[in-house]
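RETRY 2/3 - previous attempt timed out on the joint model. Re-submitting the same 388-residue input unchanged.
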Amino acid sequence: MPASRFETEVRLEAGIAVVLMRGDIDREAESGLAAAYLAAGDASVILLDFTAVGYINSTGIALIVRFLADGRRDRREIRACALSPHYTEIFELTRLSDYMHIFDDAASATAVATSEMTGGRS
Amino acid sequence: MTTETGQPGGDPTEAIPTEASPAAPMPAAPAASNWAAPVSRLAVGVVPTDALNLNVAGRRLAGPVQGFGQLWQKTYRVRLTGADVTPAAVIRTWKEHFGDFWPKGNHFYGPLTSLQPGEVALLNLALPGKMTLSTGVLVIFADDESFAFMTPEGHQFASFITFSSYADDGVAVVQIQALLRASDPLYELSMPIVAQRTEDRFWNDTLWALAASFGAADVTVEMERVCVDHRRQWRYAGNIRQNAAIRTALYKLTHPRAWFHHSGDA
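RETRY 2/3 succeeded.
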């Protein structure tokens, strides 16, 4: 199966930067993820949306760890959403799930962010 | 970023003999997956009689997010110029004979056939002063072009390490990329003194031996070392309780027969 080109789309929603990722996360995704990190501006929370992600290999997971480390260095929280059951297993295996808030979808993640912005008032 | 090139220290063609053991009985990976299934604790299967088996069974995996020290991304790369080999063939050979390319005195007790996701391998690594570090790795991923390990608690590095090959201008390029933190404060102290250099020398020699086995010409191993995060994670300072070097040394002090296991027998 040919690799699917990696692309990202970054939008601000409820005060967080939502990075919608499309395609395969592998060696070719390095520059795209780095660009998405910069495009997130100074948002203190970045949500990685896996809705349209195809294949992830070990280099891809290393890139996610790298993204997480960049966030830690800059005191930004990295969250994730829309992990398939298989990717949920990969996050458990690699213990990324110990470290990241994971949401079912972008809507629930932004709802939580909105709640945090308003101090829990709904 | 620093970029360095290096030459091997010893004779890299003098590869250690294969000392494989059956794979540990880990849960099988999901069907059609190149990834290992999640594991809460590592299990070790049959252990060769000459292997020192410490610091693996019952340990959890520890990736870079669970380590103590600064986060480093280290990349080692070699071009197999003049070698008529595809990236897939390189990876196939490497998976089948992984330990054969290691520097003398270091032992990889992996599966008899080929590395597969979910398998645990024991490592007996030579440390300065004829010391041994007994630890292991879990094969977390393997496909036709790459494979990857993750380390258990107590290993010198809390890390992911990916071994891959790709074609560049018709030449197979082999790459090792590690994302690692020293696991605890003691290991972190040794990083600028000895650990970084030892690690670099180890993978430099490994790639040199691998390239030589394919008949590559003008072998030069390129290295890049990037400090991704300068901060230390003090919440993981307690990892020192599981320091595999300390535990291996204590074990050997209290079990004299263990000196007959591999102990940096270069």
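The mean pLDDT of chain A is 91. Closing ticket.
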